[in-house]
Amino acid sequence: MSGIESIKNVISGAKDRFYIGIDLSDEFSQVSYACGSEEPVTPSLIAGTDRLCIPTMLAKKYGESAWTYGEDAMELSSADEAFPVDRLIERARSGRAVEVEAVDYNPVDLLALFIRKCLSRLYSVAPLEKVAAIVITVEEPDEQMIAILGQVVKTLRLKPERVFFQSHSESAYHYIMHQAKDVRIADVCICDLRSTGLKLTLFSENIQTRPHVVIMTERIFEDFVPEVFEGVKNAEGKKYKKDQEFYQILYGMLEDRRVSAVYLLGDGFEGDWCSESLKYICKGRRAFKGNNLFSKGACYGAREKLEPSEEEKKSVFLGQDKVKANIGMSVMRGGGEAYMALLDAGRNWYDSYKECELMLEPGDRLDFIVTPLNGKNTKIVPMYLTGLPRRQRRATRIHLKLSMLSETKVNVIVTDLGFGEIFAPSGLEWESSFSIL
User: Which domains are assigned to the chain?
Assistant: First the structure.
């Protein structure tokens, strides 16, 4: 039984199970939650306001052991009452200890502390014991980031089978798939403006395939960053120039495509500097502004892990971190040859994993069948078990373990298990990696 199936059995029938989505970035983070089938909610930092972004930073009060986070950390640091620690993701990636008042702190532990404090904001409305699944979404869930988040989960003593990771792109996909059909009747564009630049992501759904395939196209403009116009000489002229530059970017991305909706994310879109660009966007398209699309999308993604919606059952998202091919092998079953699936296309590479035991046919070779999602260019990848003890037919049992090292690279480990009391295990193990492209 898989981890997800066991969770389903444990929480089946629970009317008040919760799903949590955490959007994690080095500037600001957010937390959203949903109860059952209800729509996700992003609680404001201050009741009665629309302040949803939590500054991703900690601060330790001088001479005390107390740590604060978010806006409190920012205010105490500004008042010179605490030692600030920002850029928590960057620091965790570097692996270098963070020195605070002559004490070295593990940067991954500090990131875990920040996430724990973010989760504490939900204890009163979404108790942790009633949380069925948590999704942490980051912009780039590469191998290093996945390892860091895995360590965070261990540090927080969260149940790993209930915590998942996904990219901002996949979170956006889940969000879009839960919007009204008239919003996504054609392509959907997301404009994310932050200090690292402007990222435009275009989502396209091919309804001619079964299942529907949703693909994304990204363009990044590193030099197009948020600007503050207040108190700037010739502010109106600078706004106009910025607006024209944004218009040209949009025109190049949208003009020759059917686009039904455009989402503008980030504080960089606050103010009235992009009025002409908005007029262009709204010509036959819906426009939305906001900051919590990724955390809500993570929340939807958490629910999809346990309660797949009918809409998402019809589609598969092929983001950059998705496995692009099915991986299997031919086995003897019921007296005939049959295909055995091992890893499925369309899953996140870091969620793709398979272990099983097989009776080995004569020979020392395993053949893996790699079939791209488009069904073309199927290939056979051999793996040789050099030095395997020679035994009679169907007298060798092996343990097979497959995992993805990246979205394109498979790792295979084979262990000789022998055959009961007749042939003892040799202790031999073979490991191999291959590309699915």
Answer: 3-170 (3.30.420.40), 171-293 (3.30.420), 325-435 (2.60.34.10)
